[in-house]
Sugar ABC transporter ATP-binding protein
Amino acid sequence: MSKSYTQGVRVVERLSLDIAPGEFLVLLGPSGCGKSTVLRMIAGLEEPTEGEVRLDGTYANHVHPSERDMAMVFQNYALYPTMSSRANIGFPLRIEAPGRDPGPRVEATARMLGIEDLLDRFPHQLSGGERQRVAMGRAIARHPSAFLMDEPLANLDAKLRNHLRAEIARLTRDLDVTTVYVTHDQAEAMSLGDRVAVLRGGVLQQVGTPRVVYALPENVFVAAFIGTPRINLLRGVVLAPLDGAMSIGLGRQALVLPEPLSPDHRLLRVQQGREVIVGLRSEAVRLARPAQARPGEVAISGLVEHVEFQGHEVLVHLNTGSRPALVPDLEAPRPVSRPTRRRRREGRVLDRLRDRAGTLRAGPVVVLEHPGDAGSERTEPAPAEGRLPGDLIVRTTPDHALRHGMHVPLLVDLAHLFVFDHAGVRICPAPARSPDLED
Ligand SMILES: Nc1ncnc2c1ncn2[C@@H]1O[C@H](COP(=O)(O)OP(=O)(O)OP(=O)(O)O)[C@@H](O)[C@H]1O
């Protein structure tokens, strides 16, 4: 299905998703990517501009929200301020079955959520977490066929969020109710979802189990959006000389691919001379000398730029002489200078062109700052605005005595190497190859 609010501008672009009965599906993406719009179309609060919503296989575009047997939970609780928790939880039951006493269901729901002692309080007498529990109670009490949750934990502090997250996971599992959950928090998505659907600019990028979207991201955006610390993305170039070992040049250094080449590495040969993006999660690199290399590990080195102490671990920001690839939607917003009149006019023309094209809000997944000069011997990485120095972040234990300016040896585990083409699409591991992870 697609959705346009203003004519021609699609905020959801040909999204196709099958949600299984009892499944917990998370819609994940940055602010404004269309998650809530998708949820509202499922709820019936918005009608798709094109396409179909099917409920249990039946065309349902025109089915009124109240007829869809779904319960929504919002970020802002949306409790009736003049009603007690008891009345709030019982409200949908009274609408559904007027004349029947909602009491027993309300009591049972409150027991399930551990909020029996809050039933006679009013919303202004409750904390944020308690209000959200009451809102959950109101959704659960009706025994709907689906829960739709729009960032229900966004207004709570981190500790409470973790606690309620665990509660939501337990409740939805126990109740076995199909749940669609919207969030921009990847950690929340990964810990809750049976599957995670990653959206960007209204376009579905990938849908899969948390394990698959983490281990086999289909493009640079998914790779960068999921996982902390964020994956390292370095601009590289594939070097495949006829008479020597194949390698991926990373500015000042290169990853030499061990012989015999693995099937995935062999496929990289067609990229010879082309710019690629190398993705290394922090677990793919360790601080160790070349002599300690295990099979499949190759040596590079880096200069310590910054050491981030986190207690149980340390994040080391290194300069390896490569240049980072930027993922536009994920970079910190840059200060916008006031547009000149000319630029404003150009903006309007662009908007009109975009309108006429009918789509697409999603630009390129990745931006290579200076296309064409990837192979050149630039030794200094160009630091992106607002970023910490260094092009590679490595996780290590706190017992390494590291200081700014130290030169340290590194081992890269090629089993954890991702390679994306210049447009950001994953080419290694090869997309067709699906290790046992793909389920
Ligand atoms: N009623 C509306 N009229 C016009 N544009 C809208 C309307 N609702 C949403 N939009 C636009 O549609 C796009 C998607 O919005 P949506 O709320 O679905 O995104 P989201 O991913 O849920 O974002 P957030 O996490 O910030 O809520 C945004 O650009 C938004 O400005």
